Amino acid sequence: MKVFVTTASAAALLLLATGGVSHGQPAADAPCAGQIHANPGFEHGTTGWTAGPRIVVFGDATRPAHTGHAYAAFAGLDVTRGDLLRTTVTVPANCDLTVRFWVRTTTTETSRGDYLNVGMAVTGIPPKTRFSLAFDGGAQWRQYSMSTGTATTERTATVSFVASETAGNGATAFDVDDASFTLS
Question: Is the overall model pTM greater than 0.85, yes or no?
Answer without folding.
Answer: no
